[in-house]
Fold this sequence. Notes:
This protein is of the alpha/beta class. It has helices at residues 69-76, 94-110, 129-136, 157-163, 168-174, 182-187, 219-230, 254-261, 352-359, 410-420, 428-434, 444-455, and strands spanning 19-26, 29-37, 48-54, 79-83, 113-123, 147-151, 209-212, 237-239, 272-277, 282-283, 286-288, 298-304, 310-316, 320-324, 333-338, 344-349, 363-365, 375-377, 380-385, 388-394. Helix content is 24%, strand content 25%. A hairpin with a 5-residue loop joins strand 12 and strand 13. The protein starts with 18 loop residues before the first strand and ends with a helix.
Amino acid sequence: MYIIFLILIPINSIFTQNIFTEYLIFNEDTVDIFSYQIPNHYNENINVPLLVAFHEWGGNHNSNFYTNFDEEANQRGWFFLSPYGGSANNYSHQEAQVFFEQEIIWMINNFPIDQRRIYMVGGSMGGAAGAIYANNHLNPNKPMVAATASGSGILDCERRFYEMDGNNSMIQWFGGSPIEVPFEYHRNSAVFFNDLSQSMHINLQYTPIYLDFGSTEAHRYHAEDIYDLLLDYNNNMWIELQPNPGHGYSTMDEYHTCNWLQQFELIDDPLKINVNLDEPSRAYWIEALNQNNIQDFIHINCEKDSNNNIIINEFSNSDTLLLFLINDTIPSHIQIYNNQNNNINLGITGNETIVSMINEVEIVENENSNFENYNLYNNIIFLNIDIGNYTISFNEIFFYDLNQDGLWDVLDITILISFILEMINPNELQFELSDFNNDDQLNIYDIILIINLFYF
């Protein structure tokens, strides 16, 4: 994935609203244009939501200001972003999604955006953009979608292609018809109804979805069918039960939509992950680093329990899986059911503390598994594992702090004070751990050095 360098130049302000237009530039070429609105009253020290609105087919970066979503955002103190997406007919293709992401990042870097409350809304072609972006962006270190709303969204591009007896815009941006480039249609859709194994709808498990549509249009069946498909899988969905005539934004009540969206904050650390990844990428706390067949999805189904133990139920179309231990806790075991025909590389990583802790642990295979000794590379512990079902167990770790919880904190200081006051006599190891300045004495200087560990 290439990096876009931004040169953003304000060019105008529209009437009395705080609306500005900017250019996105890559390699000295203007690749996109977008508008954004600054709420009339905001505190630069308080992070607030960002509402991203996607235009309908034939629209542009200013089209969304003809809805009432910009007024709703302004009244609620939200920032409002209206991307163009590179063209009036972009259908959220891969390059357009890069533009969207870079423009959101620019907003985050320049304004107090609450990254846990990035909401998306759109009509018709743009009505699917939020769900498509959510499917393709599950990395907690980058902008993710807290909730998305659709008015007449074209959720399944292949289905819409045949409903229209062809679509020249899709052919242009996806590189051909669904027969010629099926994977491009599936990775740029919220769902592919004809073959759910080739669909990204499962990625929407934790993305709240608002579905509106006109009473007599084909788009209503996209919405109703995905609602039925995700029912009991996605716990936060709303669908219009009494649709009126209309299409796209005209079907939506902006006040009701924003009220619904604002209930939600981003879920970025779920216990269960079930995803189809269109390319090597991160999904929450797990990442596939390679892709065997670039015209097929990488499928991962995994979970962790309350003790941070991890079970990989399914993993296919990749040979390297990376686990992020983000709770500063080493699992007692990682259990993997490998249904591939080759070996896999398992990487385990986290912050520097996690990696150093793993280095102190003896990793033990069970009788059904086979791997050579692990190695450390770029802050990642890697293990190469043969085919088969196996469990990796972590022997009890010794932590280099006094109460053996893996952290130097107030509890350790309390123990050290009891040593200094001779309320408790430390053993040889406890004395060694407590003597931070190596002067063979336990005193206030050791306490100061410990405090520096967790305050600086």
